[in-house]
Write a structure and sequence with these properties.
Length: 447
């Protein structure tokens, strides 16, 4: 009996690209390749010439002048704060926070503000190639529902802070709501949950110990701002007799579930402690620059073996959710801080903003690289524009010359979210009109 010819395999989606940037293996670019997707999962990465022979696809997307890369992971966001974009600029952190942001939030924050701000952020992120966000804001239940509604991947933080807010009035209520959030979303394929104690200067020892105990029990990440400014460090020494990281270590929180954001004030010993314990550090270069908070030693962290991720921070302190801009700033700032032109090269920067972010969030088994078995969170970047010609080095071009407006297509778990620059299933004029009415409401509050 003779062998019968192999029948083509069925797949839902075949994306053909001039270049595939898988992130893993590191610094590799696959020319003229295709990625096959079935049931939201990557099932093959192969040369384009073989792809159509092997697969019969329900849909073929051909982008011969594009780079196909994993969706960017924005590893630190306060996305409802898109509605506060430009409210209080050109101010130092504590003045900005205590005299401007917190009073406005106290007047307007609620489920409607959070839902509308999150929706605006999702649209902006998708248009910029971001497919996953690490969220740190009040009303996590509302955020999670909005992310789920739009099929956007997120780790949603349950805020813990030492004073009453519109979200919770007491320590027990903050923790009860954190438990409810975790219970509701614990098995969701898109939405995860974390603890988000705000910062060492707004959370007491007892609450940090409670976070650590529950984080251990529930295997939840702990997402917090720390070592953001020199003042934070000096205040901690005065109040606790320790630097913030030493205090967190005393309380048992310096471990592989810690997502430490900003980290602009670090000693060599603290960098090595983070490497030894498996801490993830989120670098937010543009926010830190704008608030004059300091410089995260990204190169030293990376070279010590610390998992480095990249985030935009919130729109009230950045003022955008543009991860392409953030990557470029992270790479060039790292060189200046290290006084070394080889610091945080293009491939390492892309890794930080994809797989590094996924690892920080505990999502690295699902996303962050183009590998068989992972979710098809994918982004096509058109490199045919005049601004990215001539194309000598794809990785370099993606970091140093590409703007978010060159993102043409986005998929999350194989579902199209942006097609030829058009958002799928989102009412763009409605989102813009809604943002404008919030401007008027906030204007009245500030008058």
């Amino acid at each position: 009996m003779s062998d019968s010819p192999h029948l083509p395999e069925a797949c839902d989606l075949l994306i053909e690209a001039g270049y595939v940037v898988p992130i893993e293996p590191h610094a590799v670019v696959l020319e003229d390749h295709a990625v096959a997707v079935r049931n939201g999962e990557i099932i093959a990465i192969l040369p384009r010439s073989q792809a159509r022979e092997r697969f019969t696809a329900a849909q073929v997307v051909s982008r011969p002048e594009a780079a196909l890369m994993p969706g960017l992971v924005n590893a630190h966001t306060h996305n409802p704060m898109t509605l506060l974009r430009g409210v209080a600029d050109d101010l130092p952190l504590m003045t900005w926070l205590q005299q401007h942001i917190w009073p406005v939030e106290a007047a307007v924050i609620g489920p409607e503000f959070v839902a509308d701000g999150t929706t605006l952020a999702i649209a902006e992120m998708l248009r910029g190639g971001t497919t996953c966000a690490n969220e740190n804001y009040f009303f996590g239940d509302v955020q999670a529902a909005v992310y789920k509604k739009h099929g956007f991947r997120a780790l949603v933080g349950a805020v813990i802070i030492d004073f009453p807010t519109a979200w919770a009035k007491s320590d027990d209520e903050y923790f009860a709501k954190a438990g409810e959030l975790h219970d509701q979303w614990r098995n969701d394929p898109l939405i995860g949950t974390s603890f988000a104690p705000h910062a060492p200067y707004t959370v007491n020892d007892a609450n940090f110990e409670r976070v650590r105990m529950l984080s251990d029990q529930l295997d939840m990440q702990v997402h917090l701002h720390t070592h953001e400014t020199a003042q934070e460090v000096s205040d901690s020494i005065k109040l606790h007799g320790q630097r913030p990281l030493a205090r967190l270590d005393r309380l048992g929180l310096v471990n592989d579930r810690l997502i430490a954001v900003h980290m602009t004030q670090l000693t060599d010993a603290e960098i090595h402690l983070c490497a030894e314990r498996g801490v993830s550090v989120v670098h937010c270069p543009e926010s830190n620059l704008k608030l004059a908070s300091g410089f995260c030693p990204a190169c030293a962290l990376q070279r010590a073996g610390v998992n480095l991720a990249i985030g935009t921070d919130g729109c009230a302190s950045n003022n955008d959710l543009d991860m392409f801009s953030e990557n470029r700033t992270a790479a060039i700032l790292a060189k200046a801080v290290a006084n070394d032109a080889t610091a945080l090269d293009a491939a390492s920067t892309l890794r930080a903003s994809t797989l590094g972010g996924a690892r920080a969030l505990g999502f690295e088994q699902r996303i962050g690289s183009i590998e068989v078995g992972k979710q098809a969170d994918l982004v096509c970047v058109d490199l045919s524009a005049l601004e990215t010609q001539p194309l000598h080095n794809v990785l370099s071009q993606l970091v140093y010359a590409t703007g978010r407006q060159q993102v043409s297509d986005v998929w999350i778990a194989g579902q199209p979210k942006l097609v030829q620059r058009e958002l799928v299933g989102m009412d763009l004029p409605g989102i813009i009109a809604n943002a404008r009415q919030w401007r008027e409401r906030i204007r009245h509050v500030r008058a």
